[in-house]
Amino acid sequence: MAGLVYDLLLYIPISLVIFFFIVRTSRRRRLRLPPGNLGLPFVGETLQLIAAYKTENPEPFIDERVNKFGPIFTTHVFGEPTVFSADPETNRFIVQNEGKLFECSYPGSISNLLGKHSLLLMKGSLHKRMHSLTMSFANSSIIRDHLLVDIDRLVRLNMDSWTDRIFLMEEAKKITFELTVKQLMSFDPGEWSESLRKEYVLVIEGFFSLPLPLFSTTYRRAIKARTKVAEALSLIVRQRRKESNESGGEKKNDMLEALLATGDGGFSDEEIVDFLLALLVAGYETTSTIMTLAVKFLTETPLALAQLKEEHEEIRAKKMMGREGLEWSDYKSMPFTQCVVNETLRVANIISGVFRRAMTDIDIKGYTIPKGWKVFASFRAVHLDHDHFKDARTFNPWRWQSNSGATSPGNVFTPFGGGPRLCPGYELARVELSVFLHHLITRFSWVPAEEDKLVFFPTTRTQKRYPIIVQRRN
Ligand code: HEM
């Protein structure tokens, strides 16, 4: 009897594994999956992915598989079979068919911490409406007529306190956070925004942890910080709701006011808090990382820095004495700055691509993506592909001077995504970056305080927060 139990204990798992492989292989044949490797049961190729990104190569995992299997391949990462695309047409097809064939899909850690009413997780007609509302708060005319003044003022205010050695990444984060708080709720920076930011950092750290409170301290800390952030925002929402209901009060021209005035029957406080919280996340790490990396690449490319200096000195020289503030026409006369911004977004965008889930079996380029599978549209793999950009892995802002920057036709440059989820902050981010570079270049000279390497996992950043020694110019 004991022998029988023993045999069963041994054979049941083995049979299950064999069954698992047979089912997987036969379904694979039937569905013409893209070529690739699903790796080990359950773990898939997750460990290879993590190990690969510990090198300095920006796309080691994808490079290796594209060489072996072509630009569309199958793998299994973070617990799910996933089709990776390094093909611009397929990426376009994926983002354009949002809500029809694909839907957005974030890892559990991110969606739990964002909250279910965040724009990033909304779907269908509500998403459409709220996406265009967000766009209407960050479009060119709003930036020109309202936001630019604050962007300019807050960037200068932050830089006023810079002396000697600073961590550029930290300063850039502080600036972008303050700008977003101002844009969303009309608050000027102060103790309140700084303590909110400290909690925020903890929430974002939780994005890259296992969403299991029992096992992960980082995740537990992130959940606690999220509660604190939500409480602080709820208080603001309640106060503003009260002010809005009181007749005669002056209406503010910000996102919060628009949210309070929108919706049939209006949004609840919880919905508004989730919405604001996600907007604070969306522009924070992204814009501040690009600010920092633009400075790093420029420092390492003196010719580009010299040309940029010339562009900004010319703008400064044209301004009347005592009127340092930038205007829209100044922003529009920064062609080389836009080349630098594009090139930084191309070489080292923090958003390397987007995850989606197939809503049905989808045929593409002779393959089938099975219903329920994840797909990852890698923008970075396209941005760093020599077939689309000459010397693709070199920072060369001049490539944007002649044409679209690319050597191949079609839309191969998509740092802000595309389709219904196109980043609503794409113009705002460009303006923030340009204003930041203008004041940095015209007011300071700097040298790196120590060597700092670029890393790509779990996010794109420099290892040491890019410490620099700044010197104020006259
Ligand atoms: C350099 C800076 C930025 C980069 C590279 C960037 C990139 C992106 C990308 C690639 C997406 C598409 C995500 C997807 O398709 O799933 C996205 C979405 C989004 N971005 Fe940005 N972004 C930046 C700055 C900003 C700023 C300043 C804001 C503030 C308004 C913002 C707000 C958002 C929001 C709310 C979404 C979600 C849109 C949706 O799901 O409908 N981003 N961003």
UniProtKB/TrEMBL annotation:
BP-aspect Gene Ontology terms: brassinosteroid biosynthetic process; brassinosteroid homeostasis; sterol metabolic process
Pathway given in the UniProt record? Plant hormone biosynthesis; brassinosteroid biosynthesis; Hormone biosynthesis; Secondary metabolite biosynthesis; terpenoid biosynthesis; Steroid biosynthesis
- Supply the PANTHER family for this chain: 3BETA,22ALPHA-DIHYDROXYSTEROID 3-DEHYDROGENASE, CYTOCHROME P450 26
Give the protein name, as stated in the record: Cytochrome P450 90A1
- InterPro entries (UniProt xref): Cyt_P450, Cyt_P450_CS, Cyt_P450_E_grp-I, Cyt_P450_sf
Q: Which superkingdom does the taxonomy of this entry point to? A: Eukaryota
Listed Pfam families: p450 (PF00067)
Note the topology in the membrane: Single-pass membrane protein
| Transmembrane segments annotated in the record for this chain | 6-23
| Residues annotated as binding heme | 423
Task: Please list the cofactors this protein needs.
Answer: heme
State where it is primarily located. Answer: membrane
Q: Name one GO cellular component term.
A: membrane
Keywords recorded for this protein, A-Z: Heme, Iron, Membrane, Metal-binding, Monooxygenase, Oxidoreductase, Transmembrane, Transmembrane helix
PROSITE patterns named among the record's database cross-references? CYTOCHROME_P450
**Subcellular location, record wording:** Membrane
| Molecular function GO terms recorded | heme binding; iron ion binding; monooxygenase activity; oxidoreductase activity, acting on paired donors, with incorporation or reduction of molecular oxygen
Protein family membership: Belongs to the cytochrome P450 family.
